[in-house]
Amino acid sequence: MRRLQVAVVGSGPAGLYSAEALIKQSAVLDPPCAIRVDVVDRLPTPYGLVRYGVAPDHKSIKSIAEKLRTVLEHDSVSFLGGVHLGNDVTREDLLASYDAVVYATGAMRDRRMGIPGEDLPGSVAATDFVNWYSGHPDVDPGTFTLDAESVAVIGVGNVAVDVARILARNPEDLRETDVSQPVLDALMASKVREVHLIGRRGPAQAKFTTKELRELGELDGVEVVVYGGEVDLDAFDPTGGSARLAEADRHVRGNYTVIREWAGRRVTGGARRLFIRFWQRPTEIHGPRRVSGLTLERTRLDDSGKFTGTDFYDTLNVDMVLRSVGYQSVPLAGVPFDDRSYVVPNAEGRVLGQDGSPLPGEYVAGWLKRGPSGVIGTNKSDAAQTVQWLLADLAGGPGPEGEHASGNGQVPGHGQVAGNGQMPVAPGYPAPGYPAAPGYPDAGPGPGARASFEELLAARGIRPVSYADWQKIENAEKELAAALRRGARVKLGSREEIHRACGMAMR
Ligand code: NAP
Question: Can you give the pTM of this predicted structure?
Fold first, then answer.
């Protein structure tokens, strides 16, 4: 039977959905193909953004980890945590050890606003704040003391909503969550009384989703304040496009209904206040030694619907600025990367080389493939598409449904199919549906036919964190929760504690 050994780099949703798709799709191949998937992650813990991105109070989204667990527990899957592509192993090591590699490392860097004062103490990236409250092993639990009374959160996407909610909500509500004890203590001692969520365009253009937005109005002791003038859909948009969107687009209509209701409320003065502002763009963060204010310029759309400034400025007295203006992927050592779109250049998940043709054995999935968009579930179909191509290329799979090889040897740009709507065959690959790629005979490489990755790691003194090690970490989290009388589990406070829990030395 043909055998395929695949490394998936990244154990977040995109990586684990790729592993799941590899198992499911390979199981129905004819002729059959046995598959082994090693899921490699630089962190000692799996689940990526589900563990270190989804807010602790979003328990139902966090429970996706329970579904992803079944992938890691599958007989054909191994977890190799604490192995860094770049520091520990190279792309060439992976390609020499496996038949194929799927890169699924997500988007972990923040975007910048490019305004003066952005690097002052007190001006921070939402990614750092999210990593902190999520107990990310890279972040010192003492990083944030929250002695600011007034905080501006820039951006009106779902990450900004998460950050604003965690800052504004009563920390007692987080006691039953998995938030680490040092983080809970810092939130308990927080002096934050006002949070300003700042949108550079209007409510019709805001990126947050209605469910997440509505939740802000349900927080105990938090008053949401919206200025009526800023939600007038025609006042800042002479094209009438915003009003049309609020009628025709279900997402916009949902958001706008919630926002308009808040704008109509009488302000009473809650214990903590959450201002949601529109048509304001940050132009400068003031110091001198740390953040003392934020200048905002009033914006509007012009007659052609283009976003523009108006030269009217206002300064907000804030002591902290959190920019939540989107995530970016970071390049992986040696792997092609598009510096403009911040993704790995690809055609439906096949990694493209400099000349635009697919690189044999290299695939990409998730945010690294398409940019930071969509919800967690979006990564499932995205990963399935990548895996369809992988199996078509290497194991005689049929390729994505509805796509047929044109055989002209040309490859479209990333995420596109050729103008004729067909996915061309990559040079050096068989047409989808053919039995196997050149160099991958029917017998398959088999165990030992390629360098054993674990042997290579051992030779470098690297012992990966196994799934059994991860279970020890989980047990330590459950024991900690019981000892603290807090919920089902509490995250360990630091990388040292994580390593101690699974008996691994720090490297
Ligand atoms: P996002 O949805 O792209 O939102 C980014 C926000 O930043 C937009 O409002 C954008 O405004 C604004 N922005 C960009 N550059 C700016 C600048 N220079 N100055 C001021 N504002 C600026 O990104 P995100 O919030 O990071 O979310 C990433 C993805 O994760 C999204 O798909 C999101 O839905 C998902 N997510 C989902 C959940 C959930 O389901 N609960 C939670 C968190 C994240 P413009 O529109 O004007 O560019």
Answer: 0.91
